[in-house]
Design goal:
This protein is of the alpha/beta class. It is 29% helix and 32% strand. It has 7 helices and 11 strands. The chain has helices at 9-15, 23-33, 48-53, 65-78, 116-128, 145-151, 195-204; strands at residues 37-40, 58-62, 84-88, 100-105, 130-141, 155-159, 162-169, 174-181, 184-191, 207-213, 226-233. The strands form 2 sheets. The chain has a 7-stranded mixed β-sheet, with helices on both faces. A hairpin with a 4-residue loop joins strand 7 (162-169) and strand 8. The chain is globular, with a radius of gyration of 17 Å.
Amino acid sequence: MASPYDAIAELYDPWSRSVVEDVGFYVEEARAAGGTVVELGVGTGRIAIPVASEGVPVIGVDSSEGMLAVCRRRAELAGVAHLLDLRLGDLREPPVSERVRLVTCPFRSFLHLDTDAERLRALRAARELLVPGGRLAFDVFAPSRGDIEETHGRWLEREPGIWERADWDEVSRTLTLSVRDDHGGSTMSLAWLAPEDWRRLLAEAGFELEALYGWFDRRPYRGGEDTVWIARRS
């Protein structure tokens, strides 16, 4: 099946150009792991290319052929294509037989999973990619009332010439996110959970929580929209 990201593969980097706060965090985790890293939801390589630039090999999985094509092109331009092994696949069943010390799922990619059954399947699949004691690092969010009120149902110019619309459903805890420019666009669905739900799912999937941060500077989580998780394979 085509990914909704295929239609915006060339638009994705200009749309997300201001999102840089997480790059250093994932690069640090990759360096500390020592060895190949698996990145789920690798997209255009926003994280993977800086990681590879540190000499760390990356197996990148994504469900969008268009995004992977952009990633390959960017990796070649950055001179790190030899360190990226890009594979078309799904978060719930990544096409990876290798076992590694670190699996990452940056930029809220787990929110593309709609149900607890899908989330558990993805978390258990990530666990199977890890050696004993290996770690999973990911980030997610749950919107604040203020964020919903400020953005719901409105087209907002995220970057010059690039528009974004968020339609929130607080009952189902889902976000319908639309992105467009003058040449086209796409719409995707995301589903959020409270931190206690992610904590429960990680335990059910066979992980021990190592750290829960409130931001990528590793400040402890004390409430708020964003959560950054590090969990160890039990």
